[in-house]
Amino acid sequence: MISTPLTEICGVRVPVVQGGMQWVGKPELVAAVSNAGGLGIITALTQPNPDALRVAIRETRKSTDKPFGVNITLLPSINPPDYEGYARAAVEEGVKIFETAGNSPGKLIKYFKSEGCIVIHKCTTIRHAKSAERLGVDILSIDGFECAGHPGEDDIGGVVLLARAAQELKIPYIASGGFADGRGLVSALALGAAGVNMGTRFMCTVESPIHQNIKEKIVASTEQDTVHIFRTLRNTARVFKNSVSEQVVALERRPGGAKFEDLRELVSGARGRVVYENGDPEYGIWSAGISVGLIRDIPSCQELVARIEKEAEEVIAGMSRSVKVSSKL
Ligand code: NAD
């Protein structure tokens, strides 16, 4: 067993968090991750309104008695969500762990802390991490350039970002972006993290509520198969490379660039959602991290989390056998 401040604070067995994923963080996946010993996270905005989030929370509780959390991500949206309504609904339903992410999270973080909840805040720069630390979050989730979705605008890979976190942060942090296996977990621990956050890896599990074709597409992909969109709008997102994301990039690169209005039809989340429902990877934009290159199968969450735990323990034991450390005393 690998015990860390993450496992202690959140009451989970394995230091692995299933991060928020739009259209994917639904009860069946969340309960499976939590039952496997990790921390499952419901994505609030995947539910159409706060009442639907209440139903999703109750549904998750029917399938697990283990801890799970709720993600609320604050980013530009075509239809501005009722963030406060989602937050209140989750707190009233008794959720004790929140993952926040995105811009200006101060008000939400203060609310969750005033309700005695644990907050894991995801950020992509040390500057934002330190400001969240001052706001009183419990754990930071340090999201490197490798991640799916929104990596920020600074393009710092996980190795340096996590080492910087070790230098600067006082509270525990977990590593996010590019993690998919036990070796990755050990590397995160070596960089001072208390665990890992995985999104793309959990998309490709038996219980993940997306079409089998998309899971198979992930298995067949390499680390070359993602691309950044919205770079020119300063809302960069790493998504799967397909005809739609390549069209978006081409529009952004044309002379004079593109406004969001020029891209809206191509990038809408409603269209991306259909990808997961009908299994056509070319239908719209869908998020994926560079870790697609590491994913070779579609295990159950139980198999995956157990494998990561075993592999991490073997890597740690193997290192102490193969790396000789001599003392000059
Ligand atoms: P959406 O249909 O509202 O927007 C699609 C994409 O366009 C998103 O990446 C969004 O950030 C971006 N966008 C929207 N308006 C924009 C603008 N004016 N300028 C620049 N970019 C703009 O998105 P959705 O799929 O319905 O998701 C709802 C919200 O959840 C979005 O803000 C999205 O970024 C966010 N999100 C959450 C997660 C998560 O893990 N919880 C993951 C991905 C995205």
UniProtKB/TrEMBL annotation:
Keywords: Flavoprotein, FMN, Oxidoreductase. GO terms for molecular function: nitronate monooxygenase activity. The keyword Transcription does not apply. InterPro entries: Aldolase_TIM, NMO. CDD domains: NPD_like (cd04730). It holds the Pfam family NMO. PANTHER family: 2-NITROPROPANE DIOXYGENASE, 2-NITROPROPANE DIOXYGENASE-LIKE PROTEIN. This is Uncharacterized protein. It comes from Serpula lacrymans var. lacrymans (strain S7.3) (Dry rot fungus).
